[in-house]
Design brief:
Rossmann fold, two-stranded antiparallel ribbon, alpha/beta, 230 residues, 7-stranded parallel beta sheet, single chain
Length: 230
């Protein structure tokens, strides 16, 4: 039986490949995108799988628009992948950063996934194995210290803490929540020197999320399902 997946940031990189692979195996996919141009990119990339994919447009910073869009999506939702995010302003060390741009990174990377979960939460009712993956990064581990990536890393560290707290809140509803590191992937954000292709990362992500149960909730894992240090 097919499942219903919601994927944010579905027009490029990991998000686009998630939509492609999920649609190709027959899942129903709702892809969220920032604007019409992003939707055009997605639709041009999935060709034969159009029938499997719905799209909704909103900025991840706009909670009201997100809620309005979510109300038009029929459930149940089986899996939500909060993938939309940005890298960082440059420079961004603690002593040298653009504070306004840094706040925007937090609004997108840290609060954006929470807005997404809150907007779509009612549609999880009735799902057999509801799962939420907040896409994080190994840089979100406090053991990884890189001053030149301070803003991005801090936004993911905060997201990891919210993932832990969200897992506790949603456990009584039977919803599994994890923070997910997709690996260092050759995308626009990851750069050309990354060791993983987007196809490898996404096939691992899907297999990992397929296997999640409530016993995994509150974990920080990578695309292979391996635990990472907080």
């Amino acid at each position: 039986m097919s499942e219903h997946w919601v994927v944010s940031g579905g027009n490029r990189g990991i998000g686009l490949e998630l939509v492609r692979q999920l649609a190709a195996r027959g899942e129903r996919v709702t892809a969220t995108l920032r604007n019409e141009a992003a939707r055009d990119v997605l639709l041009a990339s999935i060709a034969a799988q159009h029938a499997q994919v719905e799209t909704r447009l909103f900025d991840i910073r706009d909670g009201a628009a997100m809620l309005s869009a979510a109300n038009t999506v029929s459930g149940p939702i089986d899996a939500l992948v909060a993938n939309a995010g940005v890298s960082e302003p440059s420079p961004q060390t603690p002593l040298e950063m653009d504070f306004e741009k840094a706040l925007d990174v937090f609004s997108i990377n840290t609060l954006g996934p929470l807005r997404l979960v809150r907007a779509f939460l009612p549609q999880f009712a009735g799902a057999a194995n509801p799962r939420i993956a907040l896409v994080s990064s190994r840089l979100g581990s406090t053991a990884d210290v890189r001053p030149t990536a301070a803003v991005y890393a801090a936004s993911k560290i905060a997201l990891n803490k919210f993932a832990q707290c969200l897992a506790e809140e949603l456990k009584p509803k039977g919803i599994t929540v994890v923070a997910l590191h997709p690996g260092w992937v050759r995308t626009d954000m990851g750069g050309p020197n990354a060791p993983l292709s987007v196809q490898e990362s996404v096939s691992g992500i899907i297999a990992t999320l397929d296997a999640l149960t409530l016993a995994d909730s509150g974990g920080f894992i990578d695309y292979r399902g391996e635990r990472l240090p907080w």
